[in-house]
Specification:
single chain; seven-stranded mixed sheet; alpha+beta; 11 strands; 297 residues; binds L-homoserine; globular; 26% strand; Alpha-Beta Plaits
């Protein structure tokens, strides 16, 4: 029996579009047992929506490892216990991919190195900012220019408030509405904001997150998909959020704070005013990723 725990992730972290992401202490579990035929059971989030057939994303990723090492994929029994809400900007598809890859690697007695697993995960997902923290934990920065490189930042000592609306946004749809070009001034501002973000996280000068979580590359376009976005952001800041942003491609909003209860209340009330039902979750950054959360027994 193999068990892998994979953390949820919040990609972009403000201005770090497709580059920066953070792992959060909300988990999906993948349990694998040898079996004569493929059997997939899903519990928790998405239990009624997720495919239990060959095209299940965890199983597809599981098979990728077999193919990579030149082996015929094997049928297995997969038990998926999900806490990560689907299509809300919290990395549920990355968790599925990373869970499948890490579980298969453990099943085959660890033929692939961590960097090979990351490369495979990025090839399947298309961008690294969810899969990297899901795999490695913490806050990750990735580049693909052209070789994939990934570094981890020190973990931050703040609570994370998530305001999770009760509607879904598919990442593919949220990417389609982005412009092909952005104004030069906006690009310049994002360069500055990312520098402030990294400074804030590396030196624990969290007051710099007010600038360091602002974005001009994707939020101006995607905020239209989230009713009340800028008002929620303002009210969260007034209630004590140090930095607020869209989580991944939305619709969840993420706030970093030392006063999580007040921020959660402000975000929920403001969303409600705009007719959006939300669930608020108070969580924190998760230092260890799926690579370190594998039990083989
Ligand atoms: N960086 C990606 C995007 C993450 O914002 O489209 C998607 O979860």
């Amino acid at each position: 029996m193999i068990r892998v725990r994979v953390p949820a992730t919040s990609a972009n972290l403000g201005p770090g579009f497709d580059v920066i992401g953070v792992a959060l202490s909300i988990f999906n579990e993948v349990w694998v047992e040898a079996s004569k035929e493929l059997k997939i059971e899903v519990f928790g989030e998405g239990a009624n929506k997720i495919s239990k057939a060959q095209d299940n994303l965890v199983y597809r990723a599981f098979c990728e490892v077999f193919e990579k090492v030149g082996k015929e994929p094997e049928p297995v029994k997969l038990t998926l216990k999900n806490e990560i809400p689907l299509s809300r900007g919290l990395g549920s598809s990355s968790a599925a991919i990373v869970g499948g890859l890490v579980a298969a690697n453990a099943y085959l007695n660890f033929p692939l190195k961590p960097e090979e697993l990351l490369q495979l995960a990025v090839e399947i997902e298309g961008h690294p900012d969810n899969v990297a923290p899901a795999l490695c934990g913490g806050v990750t920065i990735c580049t693909q220019t052209p070789k994939l490189r990934c570094v981890k930042l020190p973990i931050f000592e703040l609570d994370v408030v998530l305001a999770v609306p009760d509607f879904e946004i598919k990442t593919s749809d949220a990417r389609r509405i982005l412009p092909k070009e952005v104004p030069f001034e906006d690009a310049k501002m994002n360069v500055a904001n990312v520098a402030f973000l990294i400074m804030a996280l590396c030196t624990k000068r969290y007051e710099l997150l007010e600038i360091g979580m602002q974005d001009k590359l994707h939020q101006p376009y995607r905020s239209r998909l989230v009713p009340g976005f800028y008002e929620v952001l303002e009210r969260a800041r007034e209630a004590g959020a140090l930095g607020v942003a869209l989580s991944g491609s939305g619709p969840t909003m993420i706030a970093l704070t030392k006063s999580p209860q007040a921020v959660a209340k402000a975000m929920a009330e403001t969303f409600e005013k705009h007719g959006v039902n939300v669930k608020t979750i108070i969580t924190h950054p998760q230092e260890r990723g799926a690579l370190e959360l594998v039990d083989v027994g």
